[in-house]
Amino acid sequence: MDSDTTPTSILPAHACWELLRGAAYGRLVLCIDGQPEIFPINAQVDHGTLVFRTSEGSKQREAEGALVAYEADGVLADGSRAWSVVIKGTASTIQRTAELMSTIHLPLHPWEPGRKDRFMRIVPASITGRSFEVTPVPSAQRIPAASDE
Amino acid sequence: MDSDTTPTSILPAHACWELLRGAAYGRLVLCIDGQPEIFPINAQVDHGTLVFRTSEGSKQREAEGALVAYEADGVLADGSRAWSVVIKGTASTIQRTAELMSTIHLPLHPWEPGRKDRFMRIVPASITGRSFEVTPVPSAQRIPAASDE
């Protein structure tokens, strides 16, 4: 991080978790052959870990056992400050039936729809967060012409 | 990406650039010794590249010459669909005076304040984007107790 951003506040761990619990989605970050990859995902806090749904695709294969990061950010209610929380840890597929059944009840509606019947868990090695003043961000946007897949 | 997310639309490159131009901020992703690192940054489109400001700190040192990714996402005006655009490429510090002077006029107010007198440019090797249906995301949040740095 930059050392000279004095208006930045370091968030204590409990504040980081509280912000993550309120964040509907974030971004999963992986390194694949030295190339950073980033995917928006819907993740939920579960007893000091993060759980997310995915399909049995490349994201799951690459994340399995890997060092990953998860970032969520947003603007606080008064609009004057933004926050960003980063979890770093290891991701693995939830295999045990009992563990899987307990995660079924988490409100894990995928941000992106589709068949996502695998659950993965990120066990954090670290959680860090900051809040800082922001310049205003634009609101929702119009979409340019898009082609359907 | 997942192959079974049928409600996903692939965005053409011009739509990706238009969405990036309207995004006030995004996230810079790096791999440092195999560990993914992610930083919220304010970046601007500049003639088919991305320019951002940073201080002369670890972020700049690590990004110099590295494979990086930049992601921005958001919810479209009608609220029904989200978009995510990812640029992958190489980052380097803007050194030449003429190039630097032309970037001075970009509206690059840092998302996070502080002394950020270095400009870096990401030259894209690829730009990809998707839009997809979303479950509602929460609005701005209250901040939990934070300690000042």
Descriptive overview:
- The structure is a homodimer of 149-residue chains.
- Chain A has helices at residues 13-22, 58-63, 97-104, and strands spanning 9-10, 26-32, 35-41, 43-46, 49-54, 67-75, 81-93, 118-133.
- Chain A is of the alpha+beta class and 149 residues long.
- Chain A has one domain (8-129): Pnp Oxidase, Chain A.
- In chain A, strands 1, 2, 3, 4, 5, 6, 7 and 8 form an 8-stranded antiparallel sheet that branches.
- In chain A, strand 6 (67-75) and strand 7 (81-93) form a beta hairpin.
- Residues 1-6 and 145-149 of chain A have low confidence and may be disordered.
- At the A-B interface, strand 1, helix 1, strand 2, strand 3 and strand 6 of A face strand 1, helix 1, strand 2, strand 3 and strand 6 of B.
